[in-house]
């Protein structure tokens, strides 16, 4: 799977999760988005062009 395909799959998953649980956007961003990002970096082929579908936020050292 290419990185672009993985990003589209994660974006579709995010839309579906938020359709089912509209008040869980923060939970998705805090819990699932970093996991999907790690999986994409580990298993998807390298991306051809820069860009992100999900707003992956860097976590500060204090966990915030």
List its traits.
64 residues; mainly alpha; 0% strand
Could you explain how this protein is built, in words?
The chain is mostly helical. It has a domain at 3-43. Helix content is 58%, strand content 0%. The chain contains 2 helices and no strands. Helix 1 packs antiparallel against helix 2 (25-43). The radius of gyration is 12 Å and the shape is flat. The mean pLDDT is 83.
| Strand count | 0
Order of helices and strands: HH
Give the helix level as a range of percent: 55-70%
**Distinct helical segment count:** 2
Low-confidence stretches: none
Distance N terminus to C terminus?
32 Å
Class by helix and strand content? Answer: mainly alpha
What is the radius of gyration computed over CA atoms, rounded to a whole number of angstroms? 12 Å
How much β-strand is present in the residues? Answer: under 5%
Shape label: flat
- Residue-averaged pLDDT, rounded? 83
Largest sheet: none
Would you summarize the structure shown here?
By secondary structure, this protein is mainly α.
Map the helices and strands:
Elements: H1 3-20, H2 25-43
């Amino acid at each position: 799977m290419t990185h672009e395909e993985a990003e589209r799959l994660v974006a579709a998953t995010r839309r579906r999760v938020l359709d089912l649980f509209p008040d869980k956007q923060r939970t998705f961003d805090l819990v699932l988005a970093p996991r999907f990002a790690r999986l994409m970096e580990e298993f998807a082929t390298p991306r051809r062009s820069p860009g992100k579908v999900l707003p992956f936020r860097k976590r500060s050292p204090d966990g915030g």
